[in-house]
Structures are given as C-alpha cells and as structure tokens.
C-alpha cells in the first residue's frame, strides 16, 4: 500500500475516532490526525490495524461543510481520490469531493442505501450484528473493565489495587506488597485498564536484566500484551537514519542496566513520549543527599517526562528510609519535598489508625480520643469542613454506644462510618501513592519451617582466618569459602566443607524433591554445581548474574521440568531476584545474607502466591562461625526465617554496629544473648507501633476490605458466561472459523478456507486452543483464555460492526393470523458519542442499540415481540424474491423510516439525558471528594483535579452531542406458506 499525505484512513480498533487523515509519513511510521475527536495516532506502516477508506459509485458521502454527494465516479490522481457525483441538497449540480475534504464524522454505508440497491445480507448475519451491538454495549459498562480477561486467579487485594489505580488519570504510585504477593500482576492489571480505556498507549517497562524475559512472558500469557524487548542489539539495529528507535514500538521492555550504561539510549528513551513507565525492583534506585545512584538519576530523567509511573518493590526501605523517600519524591515532587517533614508527618498515623480501628470495631470513641482528634483536625482541616466532620464523629460515637448490644449498625450509620474511614485514610500519609499488602492481611499462605543444621568448623578455614588475621573482613568471615580461595589460592574448599557433604547427602536421600539452593556468591554457586554434577551425578542447574539471559531462562526452565528436570537449582544472591520458583518447597540457604531484606527476597522465591505446600528452609551452618551468629540473630532476634519480617530494615539499622562486632569475632559471644533479647523487644515494639499506625492505615487502604471481594464476585459470575460462549460460537460460524472440541472446557479454533475476513487479528494459521474457563486457563497455559476482553472477541465484534455485514436483510414471517404481504420493519438505531477514548464515555453512554419493530402506521411493537422470539420465527428469502419485495414496498419503507425518526429522537433524548445525569453524579461526586481532600492532603495533585474537572466538562458536553444513526434494517413480510 502506498501512503500519501491527505489520504483518509480509519482505525479498525477505534472506529469511534472517525475518519483519519495522513499528516506525516516517515520511513516506518505514518501519523493519522482524527479531526472529529482532535486526536492523533502514530502507526507502523506494516501490520497496523488501519484501513484505507474508499467509496464506490452509488455510495452517499458527506463533505466537511455538511452537504452530501451521491457518488457516480471515482478518480485517482497522485494516490488521492476524488469523488464525482450529484449533490443531494441541490439535486442537479454535479460536484466533486476530494477525499481530504470528506466529513471526518462520516458514517459510511447507510443501510437504507444498501437496501434500495439490493445489497441483502443473510438473516443470521443481521441477528449476529444485533447481538454483537447489544453485548458490546452491556460489556462496555461493566464495572471491572480490564480486570476480567486476565489469566489469573481472582485475588481480592490485587483487584482492589488494580481498580483503585487503573481508573486514575496518569497514576503515579509505588506498589510495595510484600515479596511474592503479586505486584507484577497488579501492575499488569493497571496497565491493561489504562490501555483499554485509552488513558495510556505508549508503555515502557524497566526491569533488572534478569527479569526481562519473565516480564515479556507474563505480559503475553496473562494479559495478551506483546511487548518488544530492547537490548543492545535491538537498539543499535533500529538506530538508523537518525530515527529514535523507541518510536518504532508502542510497548517496550528495557533493562535498567542498559539504561544507566548508555547515555544516548537514555536520551532516546526520554524523548520517546511514553504515557506510562513501570519500574520493577525499584529498590535499586538508591539515593542519598550526597550520592544519587546512576540508576536513580536515569529514572529521574524519565520521571520528569512520563505522566504515569508505577514503581514496584517488596522492600522499599532496603536501601534506607531516605532512598524510600527519594523514590516517593520521584512520584510527586511537590508533595514529598522535605525528608524531615515527611518523617514528622508519619507520627500522626497512630492517632488516625486508632480512631479508624475503633470505628471499624464499632467501639465508642472515648472523650479523650475525641479531643485528640478534634485538636488534630483543627490544625489540619479547613474550617468549613471541620464542623460536619466533628459532628459525624460524635454521632458515630453515640450510635455505636446505642447499638452496642445488638452489635449491628443501621445501614446509614454503616455508610457514614465507611465514608469517614475513607476520608481519614485518603487524607493522611502516603495513601494515594503507596500501596502495601502484607501476609498478615491476606489469608492462605503456607507455613515456613526452619531446619538449622549445625556442622563442625573445618580446621582449613581456621587456618585461613588466622593467616588473614587483621585483614579478615566481615565478608570473609561470613563467606569462608571465598576467604579461603583468596588466601590459599586453592579451589578445593568443597572437599572439606561439611556443608557440601551435607548437601550431597540431602539431595541423594530426597531424590524426588525439587530443591532451590541460594548462596551469596556466583562463584560458590558455580563450584557447587560442578561438584554435584560431576562427582555425584545429581541433575543440577546454576543461575547467577554472570549468565546471559538465555542461559538463565534455560536454567530456570530445566529446573521447572517435572520429569527429567534438574533436581536442584543453585542460585547466587541477586541471580534469582523476582523469579517464580514456587513449584519447589524445599529451600537450602547455603549461607545467609547480611541484610534482612535480602533474606526475605530469598525466601520469597518459594513463599509466594501459588505455593501449595509448607516450606522447609534448611540452613547448614558451621559451629561458632559468623554464620551461626547471623542465624541466631535472624531466627531468635527477628524470627525472620519462619515469618515474614517487615521490620528487618529498621532493626538492622539499629543493631548493625553491635551485630557486626559479633560477626567479626564469633568466638567472643559474651553479651550476644542480651543483644538478642533487646532485638526481640525492639522488634515487638516497632511491629506494634507499625500495626497501630502506618501499617494499619496502609493495610486498610491497600487491601480494600470488601471492595476487592465485590470485584472478584462480579468477575466470577462471568466465568463460562453463556452469553459470551453463544455469541462467540455465532461469530466464529459466520466468520468461517472451525471449532473442534478438545476436552470439556477446551476447543481448537481453526481458520477455514472461506474466511469472511481473511486476516482475522489474533487467529494463527495453525489454529488457537481456547477456553472460556478461568480454572482451565490457569492450568493449561497453552490455551488462550477467552473473555469479553480477549482480542479475538473484541476484534471479532469490531470487524462485524465496522463492516456492513448484517446491516440489511429481508425475511418472511409465516403467520396465518396476519394478512399476506403485511409489512413490518425492524430497525436498529445506535445512539453514540464520538469522543476521545480516554474520556471513557462508554461507562455512561456506550454505543447503544435501540430496536424498533414498526408496522405501516409507525406503531412500535418492539416491546411486544422481543428480538430473539421474532428472529426464531423468521425464514430466509432468496435474493431474487427479496429484490422484488423491496421494489414493491419501497415507498412504504420510506414512510416508515420517516415515522421512525420521531420515535428514535424521543428515545435517544431520554437515553442521553439519563447518561448525562449519571455522568454528572459520578464525576461531580469524585471531583468534590478530591477537592475536599486537597484541603488537607497535599498528596492530591493539582493536575489531577484540573484533569478531572476538564474531563467532567468534556464528558457532559460530548454526551449532549450524542447522535443516533440507523445501523441496520430488516424487512419482514408476512406469508401463509
Ligand atoms: N492472581 C494471581 N493468579 C495466579 N497466580 C498469581 C496471581 N498473583 C500472583 N500470582 C503468582 O504468584 C507469584 C508472585 O507474583 P508476582 O511475581 O507478581 O509477585 P511479586 O510481588 O512481583 O514478587 P517479587 O516481590 O518477588 O517481585 C507469581 O508466580 C505469579 O504468577
């Protein structure tokens, strides 16, 4: 296809944009401007979902000035089309419309014209069209858009977070759920909603190099999103002709290592106009006043330009609270401007958490508490809001007191209480930017059991330490095999280290177990693997940061194979970050890391969603070694091995110096019991304080209480949805896609030789294995999970509705109670709004079909005879007879169409009014809430309010301008035979 400036094209997936004009062409991309909605889109020249708009003699088209032309002739010059024909307003004049001047709001292929020119469709096509319209309209209003098509279990806290953030304009948040609770899935759900709603189009995901493929695969298999991975080669291959390589793709994954290394690449990234940036393992962005890491600086440049940001980390405070604060500042500079103010603010959390907890537990607020709260609110809340708030607190207190005995609240009190809680949570702290769920607040996690294995300290290590003497660092003491190699320059440590013998025996004894072994250093992992494989023939794989990505993925895949896979995977410290190994439940910590957050990351490889067994953690350690000290500290001081420890960083900071003293001289353990005791006490106190303060608030707003459950239930109802299955089968039959049953819940879709649309998007020539059942989709990853949101369904419906298929039909109705030849006309009007997708008007007014069944006098019988009932009674008519019938009743049809106009105007007006009311209610309510919050919570950004205000005004304005059009027409003639 040759592209030329001024040509008119339409987007196959976004027909609501109207007619587009080519405004820019370069080597690989074309830009289309859509004047009807004021939007622009860039498409790759090859393979993009756009179609050239061409009309033919007989078509009725419209000039941008509003007049229409009946096309008689079509002329092409310099790749641009001119339509020659008769103006319908003046009847006589011959006129020309160059395609550039076509009306951008043009609706094509009027069904009436098709009817009178004899272009008749099969009655089954008409039925499919109506069903597709009806379902599309219903589904576009579904509450949990973008959440139901994900191949994942319905986990309430994830759905709540995704819903809460996915609906925002340019969300900027930190997802900090504990390790393995599903941050990747949450980020994917947010991203998917932003894409579906048109709020985001260009997306960049930045991850540690080792996780690139995992993200690529997760986005594809769970969300059907095909990302492009940019490594060094891909970048330099695309960097030709002065083009920005990142502009050739809409969705890109890139590694943090690459970004910080290559200055030109970062520059290109920053200039590539992303809508949404996702950064995984964001704790790598370390910052201090004197030293911002290169990673931090790189992401800072992007954060200045990209409107939406999601940071993901399970251990936000791993590199210190200052770094945590600095990351929050990347999300919102205005709000997080000063570290000390931030720390001060955190002190208020306790009071708010206490009050919220009392209300949740329906306990009356003591006078003292009310006073404290009043003082606090007086300082922070605007005077106009203060009165009602205080009244509410008193009333709630009194009502709780009155209803104490029944333990039940009246519904309005319940609503009031929830409103107050939402308000308090919304207003304070980091709630709009930080989300954190913990294992405490989510049920179903398996237990962890520690098996500490004490082993003798080998003399070789003793000699080595003595030889190193004062030069022995804590690292040497902790990782003795490395110190030994340094000092003795020998590699035979594995011959005498009893941990190795223990590991070999353990693996030989439990041949059927899949065991993950983690150690601090890649070289240790490599040497262990060598000895296991060569000396003992144990099937093993190794996984460390020195391997290429392909080698790492290969190792992980080898380990995951059930039969003939590796029995053991040996990982270095960061080699396994973010990886999913929950199919194993035996973890060997060959050594322990110094920082508790690293320990949590290690255990998190197995202790994550999807783990079906209790987890056994084996720690072989050498008696009286630094590791034995560290083990006691972790187990007895922090209880970090058998329970997830959320206070690790704080305790490490507080005990670091004293702990290191013992680690450097493990023999001198005097006073260590005392340290453990202090540590336990402090752990208890900090945990309590957090549970009563910051963490309680975070938990309340992150888990979402009942809201996540509500979304899960709504989505669950759509599993194996009969409407969806019926429509899909109908669609596949008509399009020409064969269906072969494979098992109870699975089916193979195979393209036939007679496809209605030869290039059906998403359908592979070899066929697609599909299922409508979520549970099947979760275990059978080779099957695609079909929901209303799956591209096969969405594209299928779009293909039908953006074409003429089924828009014009003729049928016979055998009915002896009516005179032969009685004419009924079934009309399908569609009321619709043309506006930017990102306004999401479909929530209030999706393209809505209005069906009429009119007799000669214009009486509407649609309510008496429902569509499916009528459809079942109809018989098809051969083309020749249909043409004769049309000619015979043409005049009557014209009359009935005229009569239908007043009916549709009335019905459309009512629909538009009710949509406006709904939109106004919802958006004004949200706006008022944000404005009220803004008074006391600077977390609400000005641009969020401005955007919502603008979007409400635009929404109402666009809904008022909604139009109706005739989408389909069916003539029904009564026969007696
Ligand atoms: N809703 C879900 N349905 C099915 N599996 C899930 C779901 N949520 C998470 N999982 C699985 O649980 C594991 C952990 O999820 P994920 O990787 O998103 O967690 P994470 O919080 O990003 O972990 P980490 O902190 O290690 O980066 C993954 O194997 C993921 O596939």
TrEMBL record:
Gene Ontology MF terms: ATP binding; DNA binding; helicase activity; hydrolase activity, acting on acid anhydrides
Annotated CDD domains: DEXDc_RapA, SF2_C_SNF
Xref: Gene3D superfamilies: 2.30.30.140, 2.30.30.930, 3.30.360.80, 6.10.140.1500, 6.10.140.2230, P-loop containing nucleotide triphosphate hydrolases, Tandem AAA-ATPase domain
Enzyme class, first EC level, given as a word: hydrolase
GO BP term (any one): regulation of DNA-templated transcription
Ranges of residues in domain Helicase ATP-binding: 164-334
Enzyme Commission number(s) from the entry: 3.6.4.-
Domain (Helicase C-terminal) ranges: 499-659
Transmembrane segments: none
Keyword field: Activator, ATP-binding, DNA-binding, Helicase, Hydrolase, Nucleotide-binding, Transcription, Transcription regulation
Binding positions (ATP): 177-184
Motif range (DEAH box): 280-283
Subunit: Interacts with the RNAP. Has a higher affinity for the core RNAP than for the holoenzyme. Its ATPase activity is stimulated by binding to RNAP.
NCBIfam families: PRK04914.1
Protein family (similarity comment): Belongs to the SNF2/RAD54 helicase family. RapA subfamily.
Classification via HAMAP family: Helicase_RapA (MF_01821)
Function: Transcription regulator that activates transcription by stimulating RNA polymerase (RNAP) recycling in case of stress conditions such as supercoiled DNA or high salt concentrations. Probably acts by releasing the RNAP, when it is trapped or immobilized on tightly supercoiled DNA. Does not activate transcription on linear DNA. Probably not involved in DNA repair.
Name recorded for this polypeptide: RNA polymerase-associated protein RapA
Designated gene of the protein: hepA
